[in-house]
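new request in #modeling-help
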Amino acid sequence: MRSVSVDLNHDASLLIDIPDALCERDKVKFTVHTKTTLSSFQKPEFSVPRQHEDFIWLHDTLVETEDYAGLIIPPAPPKPDFESPREKMHKLGEGEATMTKDEYTKMKQELEAEYLAVFKKTVQVHEVFLQRLSSHPTLSKDRNFQIFLEYDQDLSVRRKNAKEMFGGFFKNMVKSADEVLISGIKEVDDFFEQEKTFLLDYYSKIKDSTAKAEKMTRAHKNIADDYIHVSATLNSLSADDSTANKNRYLSSSVSLQKVEGRVASDQELKLTELLRYYMRDIQAAKDLLYRRARALADYENSNKALDKARLKSKDIPQAEEHQQHCLQKFDKLSESGKKELTSFKGRRVVAFRKNLIEMAELEIKHAKVSSTLQPTCVRLFVYS
Amino acid sequence: MADTARDPPPAHTDFQELEDGEDLFLEPAVIQESGPASLPAEDISANSNGPKQDSLFDDDPEDLFAEATEEVSLDSPEREVLLSDGPSPAITPITPPTSVITPRIGLAHDDMFTHSSFDEIEEEEGGDSFDMHISVSDPEKVGDGMNAYMAYKVTTKTSMSLFKTDEFSVKRRFSDFLGLHSKLASKYLHIGYIVPPAPEKSIVGMTKVKVGKEDQSSNEFVEKRRSALERYLMRTVKHPILLKDPDVLQFLESSELPRAVSTQALSSAGLLRMVNKAADAVNKMTIKMNESDAWFEEKQQHFENLDVQLRKLHASVESLVCHRKELSVNTAQFAKSAAMLGNSEDHTALSRALSQLAEVEEKIDQLHQDQANADFYLFSELLGDYVRLITAVKGVFDHRMKTWQKWQDSQLLLQKKREAEAKLQFTNKPDKLQQAKDEIKELEGKVQQGERDFEQISKTIRKEVSRFEKERVKDFKMIIIKYLESLVQTQQQLIKYWDAFLPEAKAIS
């Protein structure tokens, strides 16, 4: 179930999905499956095993490819994070002695569900990354992308290229310098001026919203856990009472707990994941702006260099050539940047709409379920 | 014990059975006038002071270690006979009439009367059905600084003939409630009545109020206390015996009440209480009672289990309350953040939708807040009350043990005296012999009394426990129903809010 992006996988010439993944301790092994009609590939259908680091490598190489400077590179999928459920599992193991068997089993089930949810999420987010690439007219043709999909050996050899590692570090350093650059540069184009203001502001807001949504989801999960404990204790209490009482307690407590748990996970999926994804996507859009701003700065510098050369009457043709080159680069960036940013906005609006609708519908569904379940319990109690 | 034959079969305490409470006491009632006059405030029994004096420092040893870590919440069901003030003759316990007068000569006939006299109090209740409602309201701060206190209005609405008017109210402060409880505890605990414990003191909470901090937490504290006091009074008056106690009546009716000074935490009375509790804990460990009645053993085990379960449940529910409050806060924060996001969004329809989302979340936050309050006041406080009540119940069982111990002690003493007397027979000391004979006579009386006391307390406990369990089931049922209903309401509100939001989301184009 794809939650955050609009359906991407509809171009039959290149269909990618991750049908399978294996979780081994810390590492997740994804099975990337490709079906294609393009002749650039050796086979029409094939699968390769890939690790998270391979995705990162692919992302970074794309970012550093000059030709793609005018494109929004889809954000890299975040590292699979099993820390939270693992910590909880650990605590559960420690506290096993203090719980009844029933309670322990329920907690374990909840945790296993959480593990599964994290797992599904990470598969999905890696899949979406590849699918965005495959549906992009330019990026889908990238050589490294093809290697990623096809190369049936371990990619780690390529990854461990020291230069690439250094390159990544360098890129990050430059980026922070660009933050200053981008806000200081005099913008000539209204469109970009607007986009810049908007994106910078929006980014900080969405980052904040993501954090708050995460806190909300966590509180919901805590409540669901509490209900497990409450229902377990109610059950052992009712063990003393007659069977009629027992059933009542049981059904009411189960209903309480299930609903809270579902609400928590659905909210997470629709709202929090949405915000998270778009936060990263906006960062990618910002990166585009940085690159363009850098190109503009280069162009302005080349102008200055040309004037200086003209003054000194030295190296004029090189300076002219350099200036032309910078201008071309800048224009190309601006043109493709405009296209990318416009389609980005469209994409964003559609995704928000879809997810907000789905979230509202799910909330209604859950509330309806529990508002019918609970009166049943109430009736059971009243007519005891 | 002959009494056990008389007792209704409560051995298998299935609550279903006890629904027919009235049937338990189908004995011919001795005709006595109903109304407060029939309750002998004056006690004609010879032994009233005896057991009382000895069991002076009876307390809840269970509580000792639980409370040792709290510096000041010392109050729990206990009595300080010498230290309580107030008009009621604290020395005279109100025992069921006639039961102690008739010497037990093993006549079944007498047992019938013993039974019936208590029965008709029950039946009186049946006739004059329990129609009483007490509310505690209007907390008002009186005075300033560290001497300030909260005065609460206690309003009683009733149609019972026990009272002079239908509706009346008085002003009381917290220490008045504690004073009432300590008087009741001193009169009834040691003979086996489960006296509901008073709400706990809280130095921190009160200090905030005294200092005059008008903030959320001190308001919550006052509300929590008000609600607890109300529940305490209702529980107390629901007890048929306690309802008729003159202290209770005075508490509810009279406009002026002498200040209960001995309830102060840091008074000498408080220290004395602590010392007594320690002594009791030690004593309890050394009493090894031969339990001849399986019912008691079973019940004690049952209450032990209940205690553990309730404490656990209480802890879980408190955690639930805490998390739900957290959820409410987080939701409010998210709402603000979403509103800002909506402002910053340049696509108009999406911007509007996000603002709507922010509003929905804000309303939901309030919903969570209300739900947390329901969680707390309905569920959590009830559980807290019952944890304390169970402690009182366990205390009553302990008193029974102590009564048995006393009986055994006097028996042993009698034995010794008899042996001594036998020896004295062979010596030529007529006055010593006479003295010994006198002492033996006295001790024989004591032994008989001890046995009677023990059987009385056992009987009382059986009744009290069955009453308690009935009340417990009723209470829990009512609260759970209320709680589930509050959840249903919350869910229905949620449906309304999200239903309103959905078209906004769909309107994004």
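bot summary: Chain A touches chain B through 51 residues (CB under 8 Å).
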